[in-house]
Design brief:
Blueprint (H helix, E strand, L loop, with lengths): L25 H10 L7 H13 L4 E4 L6 H8 L3 E6 L2 H13 L4 H4 L2 E4 L5 H4 L7 E6 L15 H12 L1 E12 L1 H7 L16 E10 L2 E13 L10 E9 L4 H11 L4 E7 L2 E2 L10 E8 L2
Parallel strand pairs: 1-2, 1-4, 2-3, 4-5
Antiparallel strand pairs: 5-11, 6-7, 7-8, 9-10, 9-11
Length: 295
């Protein structure tokens, strides 16, 4: 039998508002195991982010894609004042659990965690003064926001709202996968994940959805071997889930960011945390954009 409906997400996931692709709880649980904890972050990633924030004198950080809290926890542990938000309550429960378990530590007791939507961010988040020293949106999170209207209006609004959270002189760090390569070759770039060192065996299948002969969505089907919980016996469970992303091209996304800051910004693009030059031999898995608000 042929599945006549192209499913953009795992069954049970909400389809209204800003889509919570982790709403069924299953993907959130597996994803938490997949990415691991703060100690699973690659040394290269952690060193790059921390040095960048310190270089710009950042103290107050807004994580607009908190998820399970991995990045936020890392920053709280390093002494930053962190506000963390996400649209998925199923993901946030892991961050809330981590805060509760370490509530006796002053830095964790002061860690602010809220549910928020990028499309209504100024209403959902109380901005301190003129804004945060830094705003981060990492782990390919922004690509979760689809373009159902076909004009990128939701994405433009979301980026405008995110940019409004950055104080003058502050920075935004936001990333996305190398969709240029995926669209050109039909597969993800080769290489290890730059963010985390997962011990789980995984397989990822890439599919491209075209609308009017234009790339409209990329779906990644994850197959992950989940080991039995501690104290339990048995064979690893094979878990499958699907996540969908809007395929932002690096130059197009750079322009979206410039417009979100009304041109009052300085932009840098990195490939896997290294300086990036278009046409270079090494194909990055991720592009990381750093935008400094100049006014």
């Amino acid at each position: 039998m042929v599945d006549s409906v192209y499913r953009t997400r795992s069954l049970g996931v909400a389809a209204v508002g800003l889509p919570d692709q982790y709403a069924d709880g299953k993907a959130a649980k597996v994803w938490q195991l997949y990415i691991g904890d703060t100690q699973s972050r690659t040394a290269e990633y952690k060193s790059w982010v921390l040095s960048l924030l310190k270089k710009h004198g950042c103290q107050g950080v807004l994580d607009v894609a908190c998820g399970t809290g991995v990045d936020s926890i890392m920053l709280v542990e390093e002494g930053f004042t962190v506000t963390s938000v996400d649209a998925s309550d199923k993901m946030l429960k892991y961050a809330l659990k981590a805060r509760w378990e370490r509530r006796k530590e002053e830095s964790f007791d002061k860690w602010v965690i809220e549910e928020a939507n990028w499309l209504t961010l100024p209403k959902d988040v109380q901005k301190p003064g003129t804004g945060f020293d830094a705003v981060i949106c990492l782990g390919n999170s922004f690509s979760h926001l689809p373009d159902f209207k076909g004009d990128q209006s939701d994405q433009k609004l979301a980026l405008k709202n995110i940019a409004s959270m950055v104080k003058p002189g502050g920075i935004l760090i936001i990333d996305h996968r190398n969709y240029d390569h995926m669209l050109n070759t039909g597969r993800a770039p080769p290489g290890k994940n730059i963010y985390y060192k997962s011990d789980l065996t995984q397989d990822i299948t890439t599919s491209v959805l075209l609308v009017d002969n234009k790339p409209h969505m990329i779906t990644l089907d994850y197959t992950v071997q989940v080991p039995p919980e501690q104290g339990e016996e048995g064979c690893p469970e094979l878990s499958k889930f699907r996540l969908s992303y809007y395929p932002h091209k690096v130059d197009d996304f750079k322009e979206l960011l410039r417009n979100a800051f009304q041109g009052k910004c300085e932009q840098s693009v990195y490939g896997d945390f290294k300086s990036y030059t278009p046409g270079q031999d090494t194909v990055p898995c991720y592009f990381i954009h750093v935008v400094k608000k100049t006014a």
